[in-house]
């Protein structure tokens, strides 16, 4: 029995069992667990199989990392010169050349120390992503609920999720009311998603409304969050700047080798020089044949640049990334939370009013009255936030009853008494539900649907508002017929500085492209508002699967050059069969796992952005790069 269990759990670890889509009872069967949770002993056994519920951190010896900065072609020549100064220069009664040896070693140590300190301070990408994981969670072990470190979770654990919790692992929801989850860090979707019992929730997303229990199905690097995070740490490509330095070093080695060979032939077989004289000449040739101070000059320049970038809120993971960023001509930026606020707002200019005696401000006020003023979800916060003072939502009225949102009615409503003692109701919700509530006629439905379609074309979500009087003056009474009042367009607005930053980037020769997991229409509307263009394509076009045959036939490089951005991009696209496409997705997706990771073109991101907005950094690296000697 124990052997079968171990094999089954190993299969789950290797993801041969699809726990995301099978019925919830089969999940319990496959995981060999119950709704009473695991025992502490079983949890410990599974921890040995699945490992801790945290991201893998690359453990690297600090000594080896320090010595690694001395392992490159330029350093090899300097090290050869240092060895020659003491090992081969000891002849003809003369002592070793300790002065040259000490000088060369000092330059090597200084260069390595500067690079080591700067990169060590920056840390690695996994450490930045770890901040997005919940440190504590409520778990059912031995039949008792207790707060535990999230790292001890294993598949089969029963956890409790409530408002404000960061979900600590991928899980399937058990019985209970629907949950509203913000998974914008993973998908780019700014509006919380409703999750019903049986649905999967992802590690790293946030509970915005509700409380429910769930069974853990994946932990650590096997979660959706963990796989996305792994993309960041697995993209250690050699940068352009490092390639240039390697080329210079290789050229120096070849030219010095040829020069030394000629020198040896001339000095000894032809001129019959003394041993020490020849070694001194070779040492001069060896040291003089390389730009011996260049690594130190570069390290100091990069270190100064790294410090100045840190003052602007960017930590440089690799110092060579400064030169790479200075030389880039395309910047791929995430949308949600980077170009935009990741906060829903109402576009007042586009509000549609359907009642003559009501203006746009009153439509917003009615919607605010139908919203919670405490424990708000994203829509309530957006509506109430449109008022000059949030207290206006309840000013001059007395609340009698509030109907919260539920997945059946898909609306909220408030029954209240105004200052004259009259009873009213205000409701907001999905347009179809509000139209049905108002028993709307066909001409009104057509007009509303036309406006909804117009909003949808621009990537705007629609929220309907209705009102009624309650002459019976009781909260249970049906009231008079509902009146359809208006439509509110909801949108995740751009940051106040995004358009200016994009304009400055363009002036510096950097073309900004939007990469988002959101819908294509929303991406186009954001691009229009930011002035970065609306020539956006769905992610399917990068996989050669666009419905438009002319676009599907385009070479991927041409499509990337032509596009202003791509929508519907998720980490799973890294599995693309095309090398060029998979490399593009790798660079794109590296910006998606959390809000700590943002943008670079076609390559893994070399900067960790400590601010949430798109960094206005291109100008600074160009200034820093201009100080680097070109010869």
TrEMBL record:
Chief location: membrane
Region of interest (Disordered), ranges: 595-631
Biased composition range(s): Basic residues: 620-631
One record GO biological process: proton export across plasma membrane
EC number(s) reported in the record: 7.1.2.1
Cited InterPro entries: ATPase_P-typ_cation-transptr_N, ATPase_P-typ_cyto_dom_N, ATPase_P-typ_P_site, ATPase_P-typ_TM_dom_sf, ATPase_P-typ_transduc_dom_A_sf, ATPase_P-type_domA, HAD-like_sf, HAD_sf
Subcellular localization(s) per the UniProt record: Cell membrane; Membrane
Occurrences of domain Cation-transporting P-type ATPase N-terminal (ranges): 18-90
Catalytic reaction list: ATP + H2O + H(+)(in) = ADP + phosphate + 2 H(+)(out)
A GO term, aspect molecular function: ATP binding
Keyword set, alphabetical order: ATP-binding, Hydrogen ion transport, Ion transport, Magnesium, Membrane, Nucleotide-binding, Translocase, Transmembrane, Transmembrane helix, Transport
Membrane protein topology class: Multi-pass membrane protein
Enzyme class: translocase
GO CC annotation, single: plasma membrane
Ranges annotated as spanning the membrane: 248-270, 282-304
Family, as annotated: Belongs to the cation transport ATPase (P-type) (TC 3.A.3) family. Type IIIA subfamily.
Protein name: Plasma membrane ATPase
Species this chain originates from: Corchorus capsularis
Lineage, highest ranks first: Eukaryota, Viridiplantae, Streptophyta, Embryophyta, Tracheophyta
């Amino acid at each position: 029995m124990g052997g079968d269990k171990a094999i089954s759990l190993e299969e789950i670890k290797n993801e041969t069992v699809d726990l995301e889509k099978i019925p919830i009872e089969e999940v319990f069967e496959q995981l060999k667990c119950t709704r009473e949770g695991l025992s502490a002993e079983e949890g410990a056994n599974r921890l040995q199989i699945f490992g801790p519920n945290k991201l893998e951190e690359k453990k690297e010896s600090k000594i080896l990392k320090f010595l690694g900065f001395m392992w490159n072609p330029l350093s090899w020549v300097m090290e050869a010169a240092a060895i020659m100064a003491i090992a081969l220069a000891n002849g003809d009664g003369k002592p070793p050349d300790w002065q040259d040896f000490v000088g060369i070693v000092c330059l090597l140590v200084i260069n390595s120390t500067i690079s080591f300190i700067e990169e060590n301070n920056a840390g690695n990408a996994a450490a930045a992503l770890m901040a997005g994981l919940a440190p504590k969670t409520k778990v059912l072990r031995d039949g008792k609920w207790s707060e535990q470190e999230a790292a001890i979770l294993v598949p089969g654990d029963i956890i409790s999720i409530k408002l404000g919790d960061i979900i600590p692992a991928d899980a399937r929801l058990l019985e209970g009311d629907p949950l509203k989850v913000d998974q914008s860090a993973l998908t780019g979707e700014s509006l919380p998603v409703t999750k019903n019992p049986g649905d999967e929730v992802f590690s790293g997303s946030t509970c915005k409304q509700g409380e429910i229990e769930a069974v853990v199905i994946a932990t650590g690097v096997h979660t959706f969050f963990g796989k996305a995070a792994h993309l960041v740490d697995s993209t250690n490509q050699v940068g352009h700047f490092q390639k240039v330095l390697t080329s210079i070093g290789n050229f120096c080695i070849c030219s010095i080798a040829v020069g030394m060979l000629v020198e040896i032939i001339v000095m000894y077989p032809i001129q019959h020089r003394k041993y020490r004289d020849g070694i001194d000449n070779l040492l001069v040739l060896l040291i003089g044949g390389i730009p011996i101070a260049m690594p130190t000059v570069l390290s100091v320049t990069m270190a100064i640049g790294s410090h100045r970038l840190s003052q602007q809120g960017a930590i440089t993971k690799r110092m060579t990334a400064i030169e790479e960023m200075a030389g880039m001509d395309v910047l791929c930026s995430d949308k949600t939370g980077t170009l935009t606020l990741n906060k829903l707002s109402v576009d007042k200019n586009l509000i549609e009013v359907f009642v003559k005696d009501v203006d746009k401000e009153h439509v917003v006020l009615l919607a605010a009255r139908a919203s919670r003023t405490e424990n708000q979800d994203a829509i309530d916060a957006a509506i109430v936030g449109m008022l000059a003072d949030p207290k206006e939502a309840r000013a001059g009225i007395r609340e009698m009853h509030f109907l919260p949102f539920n997945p059946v009615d898909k609306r909220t409503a408030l029954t209240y008494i105004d200052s004259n003692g009259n009873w009213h109701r205000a409701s907001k919700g999905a347009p179809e539900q509000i139209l049905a509530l108002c028993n709307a006629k066909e001409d009104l439905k057509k007009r509303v649907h036309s406006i909804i379609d117009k909003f949808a074309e621009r990537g705007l979500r629609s929220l309907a508002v209705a009102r009624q009087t309650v002459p019976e003056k009781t909260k249970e009474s049906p009231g008079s017929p509902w009146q359809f009042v208006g439509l509110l367009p909801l949108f995740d607005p751009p940051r106040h500085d995004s358009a200016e930053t994009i304009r400055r980037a363009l002036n510096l020769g950097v073309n900004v492209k939007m990469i988002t997991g959101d819908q294509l229409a929303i991406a186009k509307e954001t691009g229009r508002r930011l002035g970065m263009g609306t020539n956006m394509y769905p992610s399917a076009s990068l996989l050669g699967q666009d419905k438009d045959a002319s676009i599907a036939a385009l070479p991927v490089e041409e499509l990337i050059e032509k596009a202003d951005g791509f929508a519907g991009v998720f980490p799973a696209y890294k599995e693309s069969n095309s090398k060029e496409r998979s490399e593009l997705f790798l660079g794109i997706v590296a910006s998606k796992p959390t809000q700590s990771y943002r943008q670079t073109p076609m390559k893994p991101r070399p900067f960790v952005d400590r601010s949430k907005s798109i960094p206005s950094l291109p100008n600074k690296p160009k200034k820093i790069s201009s100080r680097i000697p070109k010869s």
